[in-house]
């Protein structure tokens, strides 16, 4: 009998986590390509479909729209409340961090050559669930 209770409570806990996730990140539902094309254009949707493995979520489209704005917000360990960046500022900060890491470790790191590389990197992280887009449009590092 105790085993059944554990199973039921585990299922309940899982359901609560799923609901909490949906409240924090409501855009993580399927986005029809036609809807994405209407917002981003057919060519960009085709590129994103290739990057995301053939299926887009509404949050993937939202990330692209955020990155097209003059400034976007990122919440991370250095900026838990979020920090506003331009693509150029984010790239420069990333490249400075990579150069400093290379100096410390003696390893060579690839620097981002331009803003398109920043966009590609952020979409890669989003595809891998390293970052999420919150309901208020903040790019947030996902807790591990």
Could you explain the architecture of this structure?
This protein is 58% helix and 10% strand. It has 6 helices and 4 strands, in the order H-H-H-H-E-E-H-H-E-E. A 4-stranded mixed sheet has the order 2-1-4-3. Helix 2 (33-40) packs across helix 3 (42-51). The chain is globular.
Question: Can you summarize this structure?
Answer:
This protein is α+β, with helices and mostly antiparallel strands and 144 residues long. It is built from 6 helices and 4 strands.
Helical content stands at 55-70%
Based on DSSP secondary structure assignment, what is the total number of beta strands? 4
Largest sheet composition: 4 strands, mixed
Described by the principal axes of the CA atoms, the overall outline is: globular
**Structural class by helix and strand composition:** alpha+beta
In DSSP terms, counting alpha (H) and pi (I) runs of 4 or more, how many helices? 6
Instruction: Sketch the topology as an H/E string, one letter per element.
Output: HHHHEEHHEE
Query: Would you identify the regions where 5 or more consecutive residues have pLDDT less than 50?
Result: none
Provide the β-strand percentage band. 5-15%
Q: Which features characterize this protein?
A:
144 residues, alpha+beta, four-stranded mixed sheet, 6 helices, 4 strands, globular
């Amino acid at each position: 009998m105790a085993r059944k209770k554990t199973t039921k409570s585990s299922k309940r806990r899982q359901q609560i986590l799923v609901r909490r996730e949906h409240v924090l990140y409501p855009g993580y539902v399927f986005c029809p390509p036609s809807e994405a094309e209407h917002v981003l254009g057919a060519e960009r949707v085709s590129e994103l479909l290739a990057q995301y493995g053939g299926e887009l979520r509404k949050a993937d489209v939202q990330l692209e729209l955020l990155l097209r704005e003059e400034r976007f917000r990122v919440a991370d360990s250095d900026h838990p409340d979020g920090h506003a960046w331009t693509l150029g500022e984010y790239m420069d900060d990333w490249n400075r961090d990579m150069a400093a890491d290379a100096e410390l470790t003696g390893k060579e790191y690839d620097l981002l050559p331009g803003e398109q590389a920043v966009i590609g990197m952020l979409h890669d992280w989003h595809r891998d669930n390293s970052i999420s887009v919150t309901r208020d449009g903040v790019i947030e590092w996902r807790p591990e």
